[in-house]
User: Fold these one by one.
Assistant:
Number 1:
Amino acid sequence: MTDEEQLEGLLAMLRIRMFEDRVRTEFAKGGMPGFVHTYSGAEAIAVGVIGALEPADLITSTHRGHGHCLAKGAPLDGIVAELYGRETGLCKGRGGSMHIADFANGMLGANAIVGGGIALAVGGALASQVLGDGRVAVAFFGDGASNEGVFHESLNLASIWSLPVVFVCENNGWAESTPFSYASSVSSIAERGVAYSIPAVSVDGTDLTAVRAAASAAVARARQGNGPSLLECIAPRREGHFVGDPEEYRGREQADQARESDPIDRLAEQLVARGILSAEALNAMRKDWSGQLDRAYEFALAGPWPDPLDVERYVYS
Amino acid sequence: MTDEEQLEGLLAMLRIRMFEDRVRTEFAKGGMPGFVHTYSGAEAIAVGVIGALEPADLITSTHRGHGHCLAKGAPLDGIVAELYGRETGLCKGRGGSMHIADFANGMLGANAIVGGGIALAVGGALASQVLGDGRVAVAFFGDGASNEGVFHESLNLASIWSLPVVFVCENNGWAESTPFSYASSVSSIAERGVAYSIPAVSVDGTDLTAVRAAASAAVARARQGNGPSLLECIAPRREGHFVGDPEEYRGREQADQARESDPIDRLAEQLVARGILSAEALNAMRKDWSGQLDRAYEFALAGPWPDPLDVERYVYS
Amino acid sequence: MSTPDEPRPRRRREPTYLDALTFALDAAMDEDPRVIVMGEDIAGGAGTGEPFEGQMGGTWGVTKGLFAKYGPTRVRDTPISEAAIVGSAVGAAMAGLRPVVDLMWASFAPYAFDQIVNQAAKARYMFGGQAQVPLVIRMSVGAGLRAGGQHSDSHYALFAAIPGLKVVAPATPNDAAGLLLSAIRSDDPVIFLEHMSLYRLKGALPDSTAGIPLGTAEVARMGSDLTIVTIGASRQIALLAATQLALEGIEAEVVDLRSLRPIDWDTILESVNRTGRLVLVEESPAGVTISDAIAAEVNERLFGRLKAPVRRVLAAASPVPFSPPLEDAWLPTAERVLVAARLVCDRLPAGRD
Amino acid sequence: MSTPDEPRPRRRREPTYLDALTFALDAAMDEDPRVIVMGEDIAGGAGTGEPFEGQMGGTWGVTKGLFAKYGPTRVRDTPISEAAIVGSAVGAAMAGLRPVVDLMWASFAPYAFDQIVNQAAKARYMFGGQAQVPLVIRMSVGAGLRAGGQHSDSHYALFAAIPGLKVVAPATPNDAAGLLLSAIRSDDPVIFLEHMSLYRLKGALPDSTAGIPLGTAEVARMGSDLTIVTIGASRQIALLAATQLALEGIEAEVVDLRSLRPIDWDTILESVNRTGRLVLVEESPAGVTISDAIAAEVNERLFGRLKAPVRRVLAAASPVPFSPPLEDAWLPTAERVLVAARLVCDRLPAGRD
Ligand SMILES: Cc1ncc(C[n+]2csc(CCOP(=O)(O)OP(=O)(O)O)c2C)c(N)n1
Ligand SMILES: Cc1ncc(C[n+]2csc(CCOP(=O)(O)OP(=O)(O)O)c2C)c(N)n1
Ligand SMILES: [Mg+2]
Ligand SMILES: [Mg+2]
């Protein structure tokens, strides 16, 4: 990554983090309906992988979709309005946090079904192969999701058809209250690549440049018609499973450990040390984004509610 | 295997083969309802694996379940009567060939859903672990079934729980009209063991002694509480997918190749060569079994049909 | 599973329901390069590159010839992976294709239920209209082949209970072709249910590839004394029964539902309003059925105008048994339709239905 | 997903529906060593061996305390593998255990539909009575939490359409305990549907662990002017509506179905025969519902004896929307029950229902 790309990446990660911090605050205040899962700590994965994509490329996401959405270029206003269930939201308020989507930017939806997006991405890659339009599809999913049967079927299918898809496992060590080490028969998801003859690597998911490098290689491979890759990105879960999670199932120690390696601090420190970024510039970035967030919340909260009479709209075309 | 065990094994295989030959004949005549899939060519797998089990052990089977049933000790009369849909059948005529079962002998059912029996066997092993009764469970399934998601979930679960189960993949190179080499991302199912930290071996499924040796090791491992194993047995499909299959999807060559290595001829020749078996003894075996088959068909065809008024019986306990 | 033992009659003088499906697939693939077909064994001998590759054309031969004409990119044999087949088809539909999936038998569909219920059916709604899912999922349904419990379900009610799905069940070659064309052109996911007892049924194909609008029932026979509403293969047994009833002086109107979701209420209500009597015939196990939904609605909308209680001729409340006498008892039959019709027309003391 | 943000009220003076479930599980595990519980996150911190292992006790805390009491052999956290969870539970049930599976939310059940529909429900029948499948599958159902399309289904009709399954939906703490005990003791697979809006409902627990027979409805309120049949949480809104109706001079009898398969026809028919009027309340999307099946049967059996058309108060014919005003419009409400009841009792000109 060039210095400029790194700066851009830092900014993109910062945006996600600040977005989530704000969501957490607003959620705690009440008024934001439903359930919210934050992406904090995994920012380098969305930013690193999506940074390796073209705008026309496709991604599918998880219940933890804010980061993917922002990184893929979804409009902030539409995201926030969606979290508030407004007609002005990206999904016209029908989806909410767990089903946020931005088809215009190739983001084919968060998915509140664990593993739900994996086969969809294979389908995106299939469309690309049939239409010959060169698009690459990326499936983001968690370590927990890799124990769903559809993971297996999807990787096998993508492999035999040599589809242009990258499977990105965000391994945060936990599936809700269940440790990865308990639920999975392997010590690393990348070990499963061999069962599909799919090249697989495991990288530090808090290291933007490492993620980006691995993603670029996988995307290039897909784009060249050489088939799928499996990319495991390890980024310990810093927070509760969802906003408000009492985390009775792990000790302070586990949570604290997860905070040790922060993708943003880490990159910011490097860039500052290398003289590429100043503390002032960083602050200015924060301030600017903070203002944008303010305006997005204003936009969202001023937005109209959907009309209850429209409850059966959008079921069919 | 001792000589005696080999002789027994030969007899068991011969019985399955002759049973199926007879089924094919009777089916062609008409009168046997439904669909029938034969086990011909795979006899060494059922006999080798089940020979390594105790009577109380459990097996789950496939749409190709006659061999497993016979090898597990199911009564011949009940099998034949079941194929004819009689009240005297093992399943009182409710199941037929694709759903034949013999719970009294630990045969938890053929399964007309590809992959349907895999998780059931894991459950059998779970019961054994919870009850501490030392039973081992075996899941038989095809190469095609290993592409079902439930294969993945089952192996992962059995691995993390260290369950006493043996996964036996009967790789006959085809899933209906689809070659294994096309549908699977690996060149051998055993390569998938590593994705579950399950020891896996691939053996010649037409070689009774090889199957039996590998099965004994896997069963012992399970019985000792050391967890599951994956055993791939390769035995090319000699016949059409089902009785009556026109096999438009493969050439004569493919079908002929599959016949080259016959588990029964092979063992019989060895035993004859080693002087353990005489041609006369072999003929006597055939004749005896042939007589038993005659009587079973008589029994079956003389059996009463289920009463139509009982159509809603056995839905609930 | 498999095909029945007799050789497949292909392209006879008078076309069959199977021919109609092939005709529609071919026409749709010909007119739109985004249409692909995928499923287990729809080509056969996949990847061998041998002359026999693609010769099989699916369990019933419906996709026969398509591999040779459209090649392996658009006619795709799959592994036995129902979840990934449907899931990837949903994703492909979102990304610009119009996939036609062959799931073989409806009994296998539960493996793909997440993809059908949570993904295909909900995507458009949850995403506020952003997603289109132009996807057809074809399946063989129905009992009667002695195929036993795990190969004989129709699952009509399960599919029809899901908002976001369109569900059709054609009962004639003409409808098979016309509805399949419309299903492929629809921007919504369509479950396409083909009863196995109809595959060899002969009849004219449509003159054009215009298609038949989804959501419309068809009056298969006009009559003034009672209305019989049918689903899929039940049309045939109802017509049989109607012929007998006519001899008894009862003129039955037979309405073939064709579209199980949405339902063509206008046609049903108009007919029952006229006849005042209704019998429903559906090969679904008694319990929760589409016929129940129709009976409930008709009773509500035409309250006080019915001359007799609505009767439902359903399958038994059990899985499908293998044994022939049991399976025959399980199925709705023309005989049972007759009994119900006579009852509804007061021609018979109430007895066993 | 997750628990709501407020801390869980446990073991207050008056027990809740959640407490009732814990009570029943504990009693069943205590009385029979073959009972095990398994599912995602039912213990928490699995395999850590730390003091916090088992502290979570499931999304709603129902299994809290069981891990400490019965240990990891009988209280088993699973990977996210719904098919293998249910499939292995079916196999375990066949092999002598009595597993109680927690599938979390009914919206996740489609992943396990093969195991539910093709294995659990059919085994006993297909194998001619050889197999017993003493299995309970618990799930949270229901909308109203702003959880959106993939976490809010109840799937009542899907489950109730499957012969071989027993399906229950308790609506009070007493029923939650009594029905869960009976479900665990049943030799058939039971789908156990817990509406999330009921979890914090308070009420007395049964005096004994005798259980409540599956297949029985309960008259939750007696009345002579009309019958309201409810499913799950609809009981609460119907009771609310009944209170208001009483003020208007209409005495509604509220029959809580409790058992969705099999259905207690005697209780329903006796009540409607007496009142002559029926309203059904069910949180299922309009289309094919259990209420349709009941309306169809009642109309047939009580033909000519009904004083007004049967009305159904159902959810909208769509997936569950996230946005609060839409979700509120989607749900059946006491207000809509009132309107239907007044209509049925002729107290109101026909208007929007
Ligand atoms: C099919 C399904 N099963 C269970 C759940 C409940 N659930 C939501 S998130 C989650 C954990 C997912 O773990 P992982 O895939 O590792 O993602 P993470 O939350 O750690 O990012 C679970 C069990 C669900 N939403 N869908
Ligand atoms: C879920 C499901 N999908 C498809 C089928 C149709 N089918 C029956 S057998 C079969 C091939 C199975 O192949 P394999 O597992 O290798 O077993 P084999 O027949 O070769 O012994 C198929 C596709 C089915 N019965 N169940
Ligand atoms: Mg995780
Ligand atoms: Mg095979």
Number 2:
Amino acid sequence: MSTTIEPPVDVHDRPRVTAQGFWQREGSDHAKRNLALIGVLLLLLIIGMFTRPDIFLSGSGLWQNEVVVLSQASSIGVITVGMTFVIIAGGIDLSVGAILALASVWCTTVATQSYGPAVMVFAALAVGALAGLVNGVLIAYGRLVAFIATLAMMVSARGLAQNISQSHTQITNDPFIRSLASDKILGVPYIVLIFLVVTALGWVLLNRTTFGRRTVAIGGNPEASRLAGINVRLQTMLLYVLSGLCCGIAAIMVVSQTWSGSNTNGEGYELSAIAAAIIGGTLLTGGRGTIVGSLLGVLIFSQITNLFIVNGLPLDIQRVINGGIIVVAVLVQQFRVGSFPFLKRTAAK
Amino acid sequence: MSTTIEPPVDVHDRPRVTAQGFWQREGSDHAKRNLALIGVLLLLLIIGMFTRPDIFLSGSGLWQNEVVVLSQASSIGVITVGMTFVIIAGGIDLSVGAILALASVWCTTVATQSYGPAVMVFAALAVGALAGLVNGVLIAYGRLVAFIATLAMMVSARGLAQNISQSHTQITNDPFIRSLASDKILGVPYIVLIFLVVTALGWVLLNRTTFGRRTVAIGGNPEASRLAGINVRLQTMLLYVLSGLCCGIAAIMVVSQTWSGSNTNGEGYELSAIAAAIIGGTLLTGGRGTIVGSLLGVLIFSQITNLFIVNGLPLDIQRVINGGIIVVAVLVQQFRVGSFPFLKRTAAK
Amino acid sequence: MVKTFPGVRALDGVQLEVRAGEVHCLLGQNGAGKSTLIKVLAGVHAPDSGEIRWQGEPVSFGNPQAAMKAGIATIYQELDLVDGLSVAENMYLGHEPNAGGFVARRSMRRGAAAILERLGHPEIPAAREVGKLPAAAKQIVSMGRALSREARLLIMDEPSAVLAHDEVENLFRIVRGLTAQGIAVIYISHRLDEIREIGDRVTVLKDGRTTAANLDAKTTPNRELVSRMTGRTIEYVFPERPAARTFTEAPILRVENLTLPGRFADVSLDVHGGEIVGITGLVGSGRSEVLESIYGARRPTTGTVEMLGKKVRRGDVGAAVRAGIGMAPEERKSQALLLGEPIYRNVTLAGFARFAKGGFTDAGRERTVAEDITRSLDLRPADVRRPVRTLSGGNQQKVVVGRWLLGGTRLLLLDEPTRGVDVGARAELYQVIRRLADEGVGVLLVSSEVPEVLGLADRVLVMREGRLVHEAPAGELDEDTVLDLVMAGSLLDGADLSSNTPEGTAA
Amino acid sequence: TSNDTKDSEPQTNTKAGNAASEAPGKPVTIGFSAPAADHGWIGAITANAKAQAAKFSDVTLKAVDAGKDAPAQIAALETLIASKPDAIVLLPQDGAQLTTVGKKAMDAGIIVINLDREFSDAAASFCLIKGDNYGMGVAAGHYVGEKLKGKTDAVIGEIPGIDDLQLTKDRSKGFADTLKGYGLSVKHRVAAGFTVQSGQAAAANLLQAAPKLDAVWNHDDDQGVGVLAAIQQAGRKEFFLVGGAGSRDAMDHIKSGDTVLTATVTYPPSMASSAIILARLAAQGKGMGDLVELQVPKMIVLQSETITKDNVDKYLPLGFKS
Ligand SMILES: Nc1ncnc2c1ncn2[C@@H]1O[C@H](COP(=O)(O)OP(=O)(O)OP(=O)(O)O)[C@@H](O)[C@H]1O
Ligand SMILES: Nc1ncnc2c1ncn2[C@@H]1O[C@H](COP(=O)(O)OP(=O)(O)OP(=O)(O)O)[C@@H](O)[C@H]1O
Ligand SMILES: [Mg+2]
Ligand SMILES: [Mg+2]
């Protein structure tokens, strides 16, 4: 038998592929989204300039104020980095706030403090990673729904924190720990630097490493990933450990900010972190998301709170407005990328 | 080519397709799950009998205690019914607690009270439905991610409630409203009856009406539903209205229980309701779920709390144990139905 | 008719005319625009320009509902069922018989049962949850859905792709019944022989344009049809098969009495390097399961899989891949693709680790490698940075196969590799597969298309009810004998598996 | 009456200045920060502070919200400190956690009046004015003890507020210690959350745990509304209830005697008004008129008084609106 395939005469539908739609280009939608978010951020600053020119129009005032904004964003920001990974992989972690509390308590017990700052830091990180490991095992190998497993952890971890601290606020006088929040390099507090470094590392991990690729893959289609030879279970587990580790880092930040560890720390962080990630363009259904977006999401929230405070708005008004801003922030992006079929679909969800 | 094959009398995978393993039987997996949950519930009662025989072994004591358990489950239960619909459709509603608060405040303002109980009830329902409508429009037509839209509503609604009540507890002396929680038929308080009726209606709506079946459809496969000519947007919107309405009903229950409306009502209800639904076997990814399961989920949580209290456990221990129980409750089911492909897949999520 | 998607003109001036009571076939390469066209007809996409005349007067369907009301029912290329709903509910989804919003379940079940009867599958229970049906049964259901509306025009987008031989015959029987009632049918398929058998007239699309309209389906020669589709002439044939060899060196894959209760029982086979082994059988005979078990995607209860003399850990895909096994699974969307991700990332999904240095990926190299592969597969559009979602069905299939052309694969498991792939691309795929074999890669091929197996494979295994019932060099078999083997005598051997079937289907 | 929600202006307890402090001095800006005012007591605190400040022609109040947790309040205060007010009245989310900013403010030469929740370091504030949580428990303990004296098998219940707060622990300790003196102890303790709903839930379940009770102390009159409702719904009357904080609603019930609520021990939000007064005096370098010293005292701990039917009329005007 013989095959006669004349060399492809007319090179098929190349002509038909109209000029590469900007939208089609890889990641460009993310770029657009992030641009939109930066716009929102600038808008907030402008509002600040009108409402509190004394702060936002004096160079030093603005700088000082923004340093505060960043310090406030640090702990939640680090947590959001971990959360972004988890959500991109199609999971969710409700226990971040509680793990932070537990880690902060553990690393400030008299016993721990007696070993000095190094051990305190280690304790926080270890507790965080361990709690994350429990989450991961339950979800990846115990096959629990992430929502439930981490919800359980959220409840238990807080209980444990309370039990250890007996609801006392555990003060630390360790100069090193305290310095993290108070001392600055070029006017930037250490914790802010840590926050930015963690974010940068997160970006590299997600976009430049096989770990990141696997994360996106299992989020996009776990079955396909499995059939491509990716160890979905292991990867899933590691992601929750990562998230837990971030909680540990955040715990150290909070301790250094408040000179103490308490079982009431980090309340409501879970929702804030998830919200920041989603506003940053991460799909709750998994498979898509960016660290930069999440970073912007966190900054926006932090900046909003700051605006409220410097303008002395009462809480009730704050809340009402806050809801509005969230909606607007997202609508702005949707409007830019509205032409995306898959966005539409997931938006329906 | 000509293959002469007589009309397929002997297509061989027929026996296979029909072969009725128990698992194959319609809805049997749900049945199994619910059985497992009932098992958990009984287990809790048995624990009660050992720890507090004086209550759980005396007929009247048990009855009274369980009436309290049911009363405490009523408001969250009604909300969970609405939540179940939303989740089955692949959505989520974080605003339930806040909407409850708003409705409870609205229906207890001096102005509203002056019009009498009928108007108070109407106000609560109207506020609930309206807030739900806003959610629905934002999500279905504004294409916001449900998580974000309802999060925004959660923040705003609470703010509004606080603004209206000025953070005061708005007390009502209306005898009718109060009677809902205090008066009983055959020893069963009205609110419990309302709770059970709402649940029953929910069951009918989900399983016996086109509305219910389409809810499952858009949750299971939005694209297919669209191709089947279902108005996915409209359906989605209505679902959030339904959820809001349930919040309104729950608000009335809470008002009648506490003789007052307050902006602090319903805190944390969103997570409890979602957790109850998931424990009840509803897939967070949509497409599957039962009202009966959710009902059982709610009762389990309510019974746990009751057990803790009658045994006078301190809060921190409660929390630690609570987390454990949640995990167990789910594992019990997974173990029964672990052999289900779709469970495995979603479990990975 | 014109329809553009961001980056593509899917339809670029198409004419189509369908008469009542005829079977009008649509032909075209992957990405020619067939599905898009019928989606426009079905009111899923709104056309950019052009008009639809329906029974004389011009119409425009804003949404699927409108089209259905007008009497146009559609079976889409991708399964469009809701797993959580029962068979009956799926069939009547969107137009449930109801009394004041309450579903009339009994009449719905009865209706569904009647349709299933008509489809020749009374054994599918109307109350069964669709999620629990095997792929084959699902296809029947989505056909039933189309029939559940009394349509004037029935559109079928590659319905036969997932059907086995006898099922196709069955499908044709139904189609003939419909046309006899004056119902028009638009039939899309890449299998020319089917078009010969069932079609009345043919319209050919190429690159979104009509290149030939209303040819006679019976008489127009293949050559012409193909050249209209592809702009070149391809004989629908298979690459040269090296004269029946006797493999001296040990087989690279050796499977010994592998068993997965309820799906297949003590399957033993081996594949040599450079050899193409084809497995054929009815849908549901367990071929996919065998492949999946070899690949470690399922955990067989007994039996061993040896790759290059080393045992491969049971039920561990990772181990299989490391041992040099690759698989192109059956259901590309759910089992193989990251629809939102760019093409190149899908191609390198199983291999990006190999391009990585110390855990750091090398996107640039991945892209160039992927580009080579997609070019060799003649993927279109060729831009590897597009999301896979925007590719046509057949092109998506090419991406799946392409994944294992990165090198390093010693054994390739192909489950229905040419499902939904057009004639031209098929021939190319066959070339690719053969080339791989010549490079020493072993290939285990599952296909419901007997001619394909016979044409491509060196050796053919016939599966029936989860057992290998026959093995012979492809040269010694012809289609009819295979078909007989596939079905005949089943009543006798069928018994031995039925013993462990019940709890099997449960598993 | 208990549902007098008609006055949109929430009633507040303020003091018209006395001879010494009346004379307007140099104008002072006072910063004020308290946790999110989303329930009665805290609400009253904020309202009082604002009302009292409004009473002085020479005071401008800068109220900043505390946000949802300690770090947030720290941030809020850092921005406040930056704007250099003369004094700051600070009700911390958590005394210990806010000590760091207290210090910062003092270092910046700002007079810090630490309101209620005590800093872990006295140097972080110029003056502390606080309620007496332990004393509150003691007061409740004495009231219950006196009534049940000798009845050693008495069943006593306790409904604290948010149980993972230090102040709750203190109150409970005071209560327990005092009861011990009478040979009594708490049998049933169910924590609520300072909200009506939590109060109702806690009480409803507690009444199940204890088929028969002699006395119950509810730490907080805000949640008390729910507690009373639950008791009524259970139709229980065999015990008496003691409240906490001293809300207007509670006092009304005590006065009318229509419920099991027979007393409440105060934890007056009026301390916010006093704090503003102190801040003003300190900022203007004045002492407290009725005292000899030229400076305001370093620490003021308010008595926790016990309000019963007998003395309720005296306290009615101080009752805050829950
Ligand atoms: N949603 C979409 N977005 C962007 N491009 C699309 C979309 N859907 C289809 N296309 C493009 O439109 C063209 C036609 O696709 P279509 O699915 O109609 O081809 P087809 O003829 O059905 O091919 P096949 O035989 O493989 O199914 C293809 O180039 C495809 O990439
Ligand atoms: N999810 C399922 N639930 C129950 N039975 C199933 C399921 N999937 C497959 N089966 C059964 O397992 C057997 C093998 O199915 P499968 O479709 O893999 O065979 P196959 O020969 O690969 O057919 P195909 O050519 O469609 O892949 C069939 O009897 C089928 O009915
Ligand atoms: Mg197609
Ligand atoms: Mg198969």
